[in-house]
UniProtKB/TrEMBL annotation:
Coiled coil: none
Cited SUPFAM superfamilies: Immunoglobulin (SSF48726)
Family annotation (InterPro entries): Ig-like_dom, Ig-like_dom_sf, Ig-like_fold
UniProt-listed PROSITE patterns: IG_LIKE
Residue ranges of every copy of the Ig-like domain listed in the record: 75-127
Top-level division of the source organism's lineage: Eukaryota
Organism whose genome encodes this protein: Danionella cerebrum
Protein name (record): Ig-like domain-containing protein
Length: 139
């Protein structure tokens, strides 16, 4: 908790400059700074903008899953203080199980019972959901 990641522009904002920060494969707007009006639009609660240089700071950017052995045949994958994430166990490239956290900051864990077969490679992955998207159909 309390960690942050700052991305620097390397420039000083002039009155006619506009800086827009994008994220992800869909190029969702994280933040926008209009130097002329000295206005900033921030689209996530964990993001802040420096109005002088346009640098973007993300609070608690990347939770790292921790794997612990519970017993001889059980592992547990955990992440602390997370929101909007999915935690998943894989055997090679095959998904075994997963669980998700909503918007509240919680500790999330996912146990895994080990198989007796040899040559299994287990991995725990975390997917961070940066944006809420939805679709509606009126009938």
């Amino acid at each position: 908790m309390g960690e942050s990641l700052t991305l620097h522009t390397g420039v000083k904002i002039e009155k006619d400059d506009t800086i827009v920060w994008f994220s992800g494969p869909d190029n969702k707007v994280l933040a926008r700074l209009n130097g002329k009006a000295d206005r900033a639009w921030i689209h996530r609660s964990d993001v802040s903008l420096n109005k002088e240089n346009g640098s973007l700071t993300i609070q608690n950017p990347l939770p790292i899953p921790q794997i612990t052995r519970i017993s001889k045949y059980e592992l547990q994958c955990s992440v602390l203080n997370v929101s909007r994430v999915t935690l998943s166990w894989y055997n090679g490239t095959s998904l075994i199980s997963s669980t998700s956290a909503s918007d509240s900051h919680i500790d999330l864990s996912l146990p895994l019972e080990l198989e007796y077969e040899e040559n299994n490679i287990y991995s725990c992955h975390i997917e961070v959901h940066l944006f809420h998207t939805g679709d509606a159909l009126g009938v």
